[in-house]
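User: Some background: our group keeps a shared notebook of sequences we're curious about, and every so often someone picks one and asks for a predicted structure to add to the entry. Today it's my turn. The entry only has the sequence so far, pasted here. Could you supply the structure so I can complete it?
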Amino acid sequence: MKTTHFLLLLLAFNTAALAQNPSAKLQLARDVIAATQADKMFDGMALQIKQMASQLAPNSGLTPEQQQKNEALQAKITDLTMSFGKEILSKMDQIYADVYSEAELNAMKSFFTSPEGKSMTAKQPAVMAHIMPLVIEFQQSLEPKIKKIIEDSAAQK
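Assistant: Of course. Here's the predicted structure to add to the notebook entry:
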């Protein structure tokens, strides 16, 4: 009987420890995300996406009214996309807490709060500024190839 009480007490203690640990781990995940300045990086990417969307939009041959409507449409689509992205960003802390161990979160926090980690974080917008044109170029070169695959597939039916 004493063994059963001891096991129940041990189980209750472990359950209580596990129940408290996720909140501490979740806070640690939030600290990591804050240290990476993910929200600022996202805002920077959003600005770059808006700028690129306006550059890619067909404005030649449009009347001022059509151009204005086109810009308004682009703004709505971009805002919707950014809203969705921010919603994902708001759930990152739970994702980090679920995926990474406490030791990994501590290591990430240590790195991203170090001078090297802060430097890396500060340089991410410059890295993205170099990557985004490549992504656009890739998408543009891929589009006709995908269209051809679809057309060939439709022709075989």
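Suggested note for the entry: The chain has one domain: 2-124. Residues 1-20 have pLDDT under 50 and may be disordered.
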